[in-house]
TrEMBL record:
InterPro entries: CAF17_C, TrmE/GcvT-like, YgfZ/GCV_T_CS, YgfZ/GcvT
Keyword Transit peptide carried by entry: yes
Top-rank lineage group of the source organism: Bacteria
Keyword Nucleotide-binding: no
Record Gene3D superfamilies: Probable tRNA modification gtpase trme, domain 1
Protein name as catalogued: Folate-binding protein
């Protein structure tokens, strides 16, 4: 079990009640009808202006839906969801009996509440809601894997009300369904996708030497392309302006962050978008 990672930065909410599916369907970005005990979904709650307030996994059980989100926002998210429920027959409570686990391989744990494949990217592996395993390893190995895959994550690469779905590639990481019907922020989100001119994306930065610190500006000459986000080893995620990167390549201008040379790589899932 040494390959099971304890994702200490996550918390879980339990959503119960007869109206739990219809309640979530009206506010989140993904189609709740895609959810089943065999299939988890990743989704988000947006501001009316289309920026991400929170993103999360949803996992079904026989009598509840479990919501797995970053621990820093669990309280605020619970309050926001409660504000939206109005007369819906829904209860939202913390679920502290279990934690979030991850692994590059299928997880087999007795007593797990849920085990599911990460719906964002096949190479991210598997996740579980279960009691922490005594032989689990710290979550940095999980973050190394997701950075290699080019997958940004709330709490490490962005915070609430900072980014649009397309900024962190959520539109191609299975976090939104543009045909499901209404959700909060849908008008702005759909318009951005329909225009087809997405200028900002999160991609992978490979450094020749030490990685520049998170928040460091990425430059090409006098032009600022973006900034460094989370990092692992000699790699990091970077939020950049694609048009400025293209110009830097055409002009053959070196790309730097904190004086350190780097090369960009587009995640494979974006190459087919």
């Amino acid at each position: 079990m040494s390959n099971i990672e304890f994702i200490e930065s996550r918390s879980i909410l339990r959503i119960e009640g007869d109206d739990r599916h219809s309640f979530l369907q009206g506010i989140i970005t993904q189609d709740i009808e895609q959810l089943s005990p065999e299939r988890a979904i990743t989704s988000a709650l947006l501001t009316p202006q289309g920026k991400i307030l929170a993103d999360f996994f949803l996992i079904e059980s026989s009598d509840a839906i479990f919501l797995d989100c970053h621990a820093d926002i669990v309280e605020a998210l619970s309050k926001r969801l409660s504000m939206y429920k109005l007369r819906a027959k829904v209860s939202i409570t913390p679920f502290d009996q279990c934690a979030t686990l991850a692994s590059p391989h299928p997880i087999d744990l007795d007593g797990a509440v849920a085990v599911f494949q990460d719906p964002r990217h096949d190479d991210l592996g598997w996740r579980a809601i279960a009691k922490p395993h005594k032989e689990s390893v710290p979550e940095h190995t999980y973050h190394a894997r997701r950075i290699t895959c080019g997958v940004p994550e709330f709490g490490y690469d962005y915070s609430a009300d900072e980014k649009f779905l397309t900024d962190i590639n959520a539109d191609v990481l299975n976090a939104v369904n543009y045909k499901k019907g209404c959700f909060i922020g849908q008008e702005v989100t759909s318009r951005m996708k329909r225009k087809g001119d997405i200028r900002k994306r999160s991609i992978i930065a490979k450094f020749a030497d030490a990685v520049a610190p998170t928040g460091t500006a990425v430059t090409a000459g006098s032009s600022t392309l973006g900034e460094i986000m989370s990092q692992s080893g000699d790699q990091a995620l970077a939020f950049i302006r694609l048009d400025r990167w293209e110009k830097a390549k055409l002009d053959q201008v070196p790309i730097l962050a904190d004086g350190k040379s780097l090369q960009f790589r587009v995640p494979n899932y974006l190459e087919h978008d």
